[in-house]
Amino acid sequence: MTRTERWQRLLDLLVERDGLEVEPAAEALGVSAATIRRDLDQLAEQQLLVRTRGGAVPHGVSYELPLRYRTSRRAAEKRRISEAVAALITPGEVVGLTGGTTTTEVARALAARPDLAGGSPALTVVTNALNIAGELVIRPQFKIVLTGGVARPQSYELTGPLAQQTLGRLTVDTAVVGVDAFDPADGAATRHEDEAAVNALLCERARRVVVAADSTKLGVRAFARICPTATVHTLVTDTALPAPLAAAFEGAGVGVVRV
Protein backbone atom coordinates (compact mmCIF):
# COMPACT_ATOMS: atom_id res chain seq x y z
CA MET A 1 0.00 0.00 0.00
CA THR A 2 1.46 3.35 -1.04
CA ARG A 3 1.39 6.40 1.21
CA THR A 4 -1.29 8.01 -0.96
CA GLU A 5 -3.45 4.88 -0.73
CA ARG A 6 -2.90 4.73 3.01
CA TRP A 7 -3.90 8.36 3.44
CA GLN A 8 -7.01 7.80 1.36
CA ARG A 9 -7.98 4.84 3.52
CA LEU A 10 -7.33 6.80 6.71
CA LEU A 11 -9.55 9.67 5.52
CA ASP A 12 -12.27 7.22 4.53
CA LEU A 13 -12.14 5.61 7.99
CA LEU A 14 -12.20 9.05 9.60
CA VAL A 15 -15.46 9.88 7.83
CA GLU A 16 -17.02 6.46 8.45
CA ARG A 17 -16.19 6.42 12.18
CA ASP A 18 -16.32 10.17 12.84
CA GLY A 19 -12.90 9.88 14.43
CA LEU A 20 -9.86 7.61 14.64
CA GLU A 21 -7.66 6.10 17.32
CA VAL A 22 -4.12 5.14 16.43
CA GLU A 23 -4.10 1.46 17.39
CA PRO A 24 -7.39 0.45 15.66
CA ALA A 25 -6.32 2.40 12.57
CA ALA A 26 -2.95 0.64 12.51
CA GLU A 27 -4.69 -2.73 12.79
CA ALA A 28 -7.17 -1.87 10.03
CA LEU A 29 -4.40 -0.82 7.63
CA GLY A 30 -1.87 -3.47 8.62
CA VAL A 31 0.90 -1.01 9.51
CA SER A 32 2.65 0.11 12.68
CA ALA A 33 1.23 2.60 15.13
CA ALA A 34 4.25 4.82 14.48
CA THR A 35 3.34 4.97 10.78
CA ILE A 36 -0.23 5.95 11.62
CA ARG A 37 0.94 8.68 14.02
CA ARG A 38 3.23 10.07 11.34
CA ASP A 39 0.44 9.94 8.74
CA LEU A 40 -2.01 11.71 11.03
CA ASP A 41 0.54 14.42 11.80
CA GLN A 42 1.11 15.05 8.09
CA LEU A 43 -2.61 15.08 7.31
CA ALA A 44 -3.15 17.51 10.18
CA GLU A 45 -0.51 19.81 8.65
CA GLN A 46 -2.65 19.89 5.50
CA GLN A 47 -5.70 20.75 7.62
CA LEU A 48 -7.48 17.55 6.55
CA LEU A 49 -8.08 16.49 10.16
CA VAL A 50 -7.47 17.58 13.74
CA ARG A 51 -5.01 15.59 15.84
CA THR A 52 -6.07 14.46 19.28
CA ARG A 53 -4.05 12.83 22.04
CA GLY A 54 -4.86 9.32 20.84
CA GLY A 55 -5.76 9.82 17.19
CA ALA A 56 -7.72 12.33 15.11
CA VAL A 57 -11.15 13.82 14.52
CA PRO A 58 -12.68 15.45 11.43
CA HIS A 59 -11.71 19.02 10.68
CA GLY A 60 -14.69 21.26 11.47
CA VAL A 61 -18.37 20.61 12.15
CA SER A 62 -19.30 20.47 8.45
CA TYR A 63 -16.41 18.23 7.46
CA GLU A 64 -15.87 17.59 3.79
CA LEU A 65 -12.83 15.95 2.22
CA PRO A 66 -11.10 17.91 -0.52
CA LEU A 67 -12.07 16.71 -3.97
CA ARG A 68 -8.79 14.95 -4.70
CA TYR A 69 -9.37 12.62 -1.73
CA ARG A 70 -12.98 11.83 -2.63
CA THR A 71 -12.61 10.84 -6.27
CA SER A 72 -11.92 7.16 -5.59
CA ARG A 73 -14.96 6.58 -3.39
CA ARG A 74 -17.65 4.55 -5.21
CA ALA A 75 -15.63 5.10 -8.39
CA ALA A 76 -17.30 2.31 -10.40
CA GLU A 77 -20.79 3.61 -9.66
CA LYS A 78 -19.78 7.16 -10.53
CA ARG A 79 -18.35 6.08 -13.87
CA ARG A 80 -21.56 4.29 -14.83
CA ILE A 81 -23.67 7.23 -13.69
CA SER A 82 -21.51 9.73 -15.57
CA GLU A 83 -21.68 7.76 -18.81
CA ALA A 84 -25.47 7.53 -18.54
CA VAL A 85 -25.74 11.27 -17.88
CA ALA A 86 -23.43 12.09 -20.79
CA ALA A 87 -25.62 9.99 -23.07
CA LEU A 88 -28.56 12.30 -22.30
CA ILE A 89 -26.78 15.32 -23.80
CA THR A 90 -27.40 16.31 -27.43
CA PRO A 91 -24.62 17.86 -29.53
CA GLY A 92 -24.86 21.64 -29.60
CA GLU A 93 -26.48 21.94 -26.15
CA VAL A 94 -25.53 24.41 -23.47
CA VAL A 95 -24.73 22.22 -20.45
CA GLY A 96 -24.33 23.46 -16.88
CA LEU A 97 -22.09 21.42 -14.57
CA THR A 98 -21.85 22.02 -10.84
CA GLY A 99 -18.75 20.95 -8.95
CA GLY A 100 -18.21 17.54 -7.38
CA THR A 101 -16.70 14.15 -8.06
CA THR A 102 -19.65 12.77 -10.04
CA THR A 103 -20.05 15.85 -12.23
CA THR A 104 -16.30 15.78 -12.88
CA GLU A 105 -16.75 12.26 -14.21
CA VAL A 106 -19.65 13.52 -16.36
CA ALA A 107 -17.30 16.10 -17.89
CA ARG A 108 -14.80 13.36 -18.70
CA ALA A 109 -17.52 11.18 -20.20
CA LEU A 110 -18.64 14.05 -22.42
CA ALA A 111 -15.06 14.62 -23.55
CA ALA A 112 -14.79 10.93 -24.49
CA ARG A 113 -17.86 10.89 -26.74
CA PRO A 114 -16.76 10.46 -30.39
CA ASP A 115 -19.74 12.43 -31.71
CA LEU A 116 -18.59 15.43 -29.68
CA ALA A 117 -15.09 15.43 -31.16
CA GLY A 118 -15.94 18.31 -33.49
CA GLY A 119 -18.43 21.11 -33.90
CA SER A 120 -18.78 24.86 -33.67
CA PRO A 121 -19.00 24.26 -30.75
CA ALA A 122 -19.90 20.63 -30.05
CA LEU A 123 -21.03 21.76 -26.60
CA THR A 124 -21.07 24.91 -24.54
CA VAL A 125 -20.23 24.05 -20.94
CA VAL A 126 -21.11 26.48 -18.16
CA THR A 127 -19.50 25.62 -14.84
CA ASN A 128 -18.46 27.10 -11.54
CA ALA A 129 -15.93 24.30 -10.99
CA LEU A 130 -12.30 25.22 -11.61
CA ASN A 131 -11.18 21.63 -12.08
CA ILE A 132 -13.88 20.88 -14.67
CA ALA A 133 -13.03 24.01 -16.63
CA GLY A 134 -9.34 23.08 -16.48
CA GLU A 135 -9.97 19.62 -17.89
CA LEU A 136 -12.26 20.73 -20.71
CA VAL A 137 -10.62 23.97 -21.82
CA ILE A 138 -7.95 22.06 -23.75
CA ARG A 139 -10.66 20.61 -26.02
CA PRO A 140 -11.27 23.17 -28.77
CA GLN A 141 -14.65 21.68 -29.69
CA PHE A 142 -16.04 22.77 -26.31
CA LYS A 143 -16.83 26.36 -25.45
CA ILE A 144 -16.14 26.81 -21.75
CA VAL A 145 -17.89 29.48 -19.70
CA LEU A 146 -16.49 29.77 -16.17
CA THR A 147 -18.34 31.83 -13.60
CA GLY A 148 -16.46 34.23 -11.40
CA GLY A 149 -16.62 34.01 -7.65
CA VAL A 150 -14.73 32.94 -4.56
CA ALA A 151 -13.05 29.53 -4.78
CA ARG A 152 -13.76 26.84 -2.16
CA PRO A 153 -10.58 24.72 -1.79
CA GLN A 154 -12.52 21.61 -0.73
CA SER A 155 -14.55 21.37 -3.96
CA TYR A 156 -12.83 23.81 -6.38
CA GLU A 157 -16.21 25.54 -6.79
CA LEU A 158 -16.67 29.27 -7.31
CA THR A 159 -19.45 30.77 -5.21
CA GLY A 160 -20.81 34.13 -4.13
CA PRO A 161 -22.33 37.17 -5.87
CA LEU A 162 -19.99 37.12 -8.88
CA ALA A 163 -20.93 33.53 -9.73
CA GLN A 164 -24.63 34.29 -9.29
CA GLN A 165 -24.38 37.42 -11.42
CA THR A 166 -22.89 35.45 -14.31
CA LEU A 167 -25.46 32.65 -14.12
CA GLY A 168 -28.31 35.16 -13.94
CA ARG A 169 -27.41 36.34 -17.44
CA LEU A 170 -27.30 32.90 -19.08
CA THR A 171 -29.74 30.28 -20.33
CA VAL A 172 -28.85 26.59 -20.07
CA ASP A 173 -30.39 23.61 -21.86
CA THR A 174 -29.42 20.95 -19.30
CA ALA A 175 -28.10 21.48 -15.78
CA VAL A 176 -26.24 18.49 -14.35
CA VAL A 177 -26.22 18.85 -10.59
CA GLY A 178 -24.15 17.03 -8.01
CA VAL A 179 -25.70 16.80 -4.55
CA ASP A 180 -24.94 15.69 -1.02
CA ALA A 181 -28.54 14.60 -0.53
CA PHE A 182 -31.73 14.12 -2.53
CA ASP A 183 -34.99 13.16 -0.87
CA PRO A 184 -38.43 12.83 -2.52
CA ALA A 185 -40.03 15.06 0.11
CA ASP A 186 -37.23 17.53 0.85
CA GLY A 187 -35.60 17.94 -2.55
CA ALA A 188 -31.95 18.22 -3.54
CA ALA A 189 -29.47 19.68 -1.06
CA THR A 190 -25.83 20.20 -0.17
CA ARG A 191 -23.91 20.84 3.03
CA HIS A 192 -22.91 24.40 2.21
CA GLU A 193 -25.29 27.29 1.71
CA ASP A 194 -22.95 29.16 -0.65
CA GLU A 195 -22.77 26.21 -3.04
CA ALA A 196 -26.51 25.64 -2.74
CA ALA A 197 -27.25 29.24 -3.78
CA VAL A 198 -25.18 28.96 -6.98
CA ASN A 199 -26.53 25.51 -7.83
CA ALA A 200 -30.09 26.69 -7.26
CA LEU A 201 -29.63 29.53 -9.72
CA LEU A 202 -28.16 27.16 -12.31
CA CYS A 203 -31.29 25.00 -11.96
CA GLU A 204 -33.50 28.05 -12.42
CA ARG A 205 -31.69 28.97 -15.63
CA ALA A 206 -32.00 25.47 -17.12
CA ARG A 207 -34.73 23.93 -19.26
CA ARG A 208 -33.91 20.48 -17.86
CA VAL A 209 -32.34 19.51 -14.52
CA VAL A 210 -30.51 16.20 -14.10
CA VAL A 211 -29.33 15.09 -10.67
CA ALA A 212 -26.33 12.75 -10.82
CA ALA A 213 -25.86 10.95 -7.50
CA ASP A 214 -24.96 7.53 -6.20
CA SER A 215 -27.54 5.75 -4.07
CA THR A 216 -25.87 6.60 -0.74
CA LYS A 217 -26.99 10.22 -1.21
CA LEU A 218 -30.64 9.40 -1.84
CA GLY A 219 -33.43 9.41 0.69
CA VAL A 220 -31.38 11.59 3.05
CA ARG A 221 -31.29 15.31 3.85
CA ALA A 222 -28.55 17.94 3.99
CA PHE A 223 -28.34 21.43 5.44
CA ALA A 224 -28.87 23.72 2.42
CA ARG A 225 -31.56 23.01 -0.17
CA ILE A 226 -30.72 23.46 -3.84
CA CYS A 227 -34.19 22.92 -5.29
CA PRO A 228 -37.48 21.13 -4.62
CA THR A 229 -37.97 17.67 -6.08
CA ALA A 230 -40.46 19.02 -8.66
CA THR A 231 -37.63 21.00 -10.29
CA VAL A 232 -35.69 17.83 -11.16
CA HIS A 233 -36.56 16.13 -14.43
CA THR A 234 -34.22 13.12 -14.21
CA LEU A 235 -32.28 11.30 -11.51
CA VAL A 236 -29.38 9.12 -12.64
CA THR A 237 -28.08 6.76 -9.96
CA ASP A 238 -26.84 3.21 -9.42
CA THR A 239 -28.74 -0.05 -9.12
CA ALA A 240 -28.46 -0.12 -5.31
CA LEU A 241 -31.32 2.39 -5.09
CA PRO A 242 -34.16 0.57 -3.27
CA ALA A 243 -37.30 0.05 -5.36
CA PRO A 244 -39.60 1.85 -2.88
CA LEU A 245 -37.38 4.93 -2.93
CA ALA A 246 -37.23 4.86 -6.74
CA ALA A 247 -41.04 4.68 -6.78
CA ALA A 248 -41.24 7.67 -4.43
CA PHE A 249 -39.08 9.75 -6.78
CA GLU A 250 -41.13 8.65 -9.78
CA GLY A 251 -44.33 9.49 -7.91
CA ALA A 252 -42.96 12.98 -7.42
CA GLY A 253 -42.49 13.35 -11.17
CA VAL A 254 -38.79 12.51 -11.44
CA GLY A 255 -37.62 10.12 -14.14
CA VAL A 256 -35.26 7.58 -12.55
CA VAL A 257 -32.39 5.98 -14.46
CA ARG A 258 -30.53 3.21 -12.59
CA VAL A 259 -27.21 1.98 -14.01
Structure description:
The chain is of the alpha/beta class. Helices cover 39% and strands 24% of the residues. The protein has helices spanning 3-17, 22-29, 33-45, 67-70, 75-87, 101-112, 130-136, 161-167, 193-204, 243-251, and strands at 20-21, 49-51, 55-58, 94-97, 123-127, 142-146, 150-152, 157-159, 172-178, 181-183, 187-190, 206-212, 224-227, 234-237, 255-258.
Instruction: Estimate the strand proportion.
Output: 15-25%
User: What are the segments in which pLDDT stays under 50 over at least 5 consecutive residues?
Assistant: none
Q: Could you give a short account of the major beta sheet?
A: 7 strands, parallel
Kindly report the average pLDDT value.
Answer: 91
Give, in order, the helices and strands: HEHHEEHHEHEHEEEHEEEHEEEHE
Major beta sheet, strand line-up: 6-5-4-9-12-14-15
Strand-pairing-aware structural class: alpha/beta
Helix content: 25-40%
The strand count comes to 15
Distance between the termini: 31 Å
Q: How would the global form be characterised?
A: globular
- Please give the radius of gyration in angstroms: 19 Å
Number of helices: 10
List the helices and strands and how they pair.
Blueprint: H1 3-17, E1 20-21, H2 22-29, H3 33-45, E2 49-51, E3 55-58, H4 67-70, H5 75-87, E4 94-97, H6 101-112, E5 123-127, H7 130-136, E6 142-146, E7 150-152, E8 157-159, H8 161-167, E9 172-178, E10 181-183, E11 187-190, H9 193-204, E12 206-212, E13 224-227, E14 234-237, H10 243-251, E15 255-258
Helix pairs in contact: 2-3, 5-6, 6-7
